[in-house]
Write a structure and sequence with these properties.
Shape: globular
InterPro entries: RHO_NdoB-like_C, Rieske_2Fe-2S, Rieske_2Fe-2S_sf, Ring_hydroxy_dOase_asu_C_dom, Rng_hydr_dOase-A
Number of helices: 14
Helix content: 25-40%
Oligomer: single chain
Bound molecules: FE2/S2 (inorganic) cluster, fe (ii) ion
Number of strands: 22
Protein name: Rieske 2Fe-2S domain-containing protein
CATH topology of the largest domain: Naphthalene 1,2-dioxygenase Alpha Subunit, Chain A, domain 1
GO molecular function: 2 iron, 2 sulfur cluster binding; dioxygenase activity; iron ion binding; monooxygenase activity; oxidoreductase activity, acting on paired donors, with incorporation or reduction of molecular oxygen
Structural class: alpha+beta
Family: Belongs to the bacterial ring-hydroxylating dioxygenase alpha subunit family.
Number of domains: 2
Keywords: 2Fe-2S, Aromatic hydrocarbons catabolism, Dioxygenase, Iron, Iron-sulfur, Metal-binding, NAD, Oxidoreductase
CATH class of the largest domain: Alpha Beta
Amino acid sequence: MTRNTLDKKTLEVLKQKMSEGLLPQWVLTDPEVYQLELQKVFGRTWQFLAHESEFKEPGSYVTRWMVNDPVLLVKNSAGEIKAFLNSCTHRGTHLCTADFGKKKTFTCAYHGWSYNTDGELIGIVAGDKVYGEEMDKSEWGLRPIPKVAMYQGMIFGNLDPDAISLEEYLGDMKWYFDMLLGRSDGGMEVRGVPQRWVAQANWKSTSENFSADPYHVQTAHRSTVEMGISPKDPLYAGYGHQVVMEHGHGINVITSATGRSIHRYQSTPESMWPMFERNLTPEQADILSRTTVFVGGVYPNLSFVSPIHGTEGHLHNYLNFRVWRPLGPDKVEVWCWFMIDKAAPEDYKQEAYKGYIGSFGTSGTLEQDDTEIWARVVQASKGLMVRDKELSYNNVSNYLMGFGHVDPDPSFPGPGVAYPTCYIDAISRSMHEYWLELITKDINDSEEGC
Ligand code: FES
Ligand SMILES: [Fe+2]
């Protein structure tokens, strides 16, 4: 049986080290921690499922996962997007195994029960003869995901029926979603299907790598500097602001060294700029117009990056959203979406897609750099020295960048606590603090004293 929390002594050591800006390395690979995370982090927080543009017409569906819970999302005949546990109510078979498609009914491969796009059970093979006429089909419909909500076209689910609302959970991140996803008439669209692959990694490392760590860019992605794609200045990914938000969310707003615009509105076509200015507040337009890269995340496992790619005269911007689905303490399934303004010209969209494939797609240059690093982190975090919970070997990771000596910048025009640099561990520390809050909740519920 999984205990409700960690033992008292381990928790004390953990809290003490975190208050010093350090994180014991064993939290990455400890099986007990992983079980707690499944229950207390992923069982209670909002997780990204799909974008509304993935559902073109009634019957359009996609299948997703909330860690180990299979999810079927489908647009019903009234145009509403519904989300169900993708499991037949007869004996639990995985109902729809295709990634996406269009259907009027979903029929189980085991005994043939079938469901409509509202999740209602509409067909039982030889029904009346084998179950009698009394069996009430309305009691055997697909089980809905307890909470489903959408913000700026982004559909999230929550397995906790008592969870706070999505809007409350996103908090200040809504302002940045409004800026990134709500800047164009018609919003954004997903192109293609999400790419996915399995990486040797812990989900906390991958989330943190995107949400909180521009510091790695100059070293892990050194080849891009050598190829002339990234600047030579080792501080280049540190200029701008790192913004910390509640519930472990955060965004890095990376600019030029001066903070002034080099590629206005991220090199989007000039014809789109008046539309951005019409849809955004002056503060949002100011930030959007002079930022080079936005990279951040919604805790626990949604990350995003909005970069500029290409060569001078052929620069493009797009949005890459990704979910880190844990498959174990040392394994992650990466789900990776390409998104772009619906209102952008078609040839621009196509060029931007090529830029995405070459950088953050499965085989992209930047992706391969990171995948190799994440594997190295877990490979070196499984041994006896690292797993010692008493920390006799000083087996802690360093989160001291900017710790206690960099003050927030009150002049930053967006919400959240903004620090005047992206080379700082402020978001990482906030993610770990929220993680600790979640995994220690209900500490008094367990008699084991956990
Ligand atoms: S398990 Fe689906 S019809 Fe029997
Ligand atoms: Fe990276």
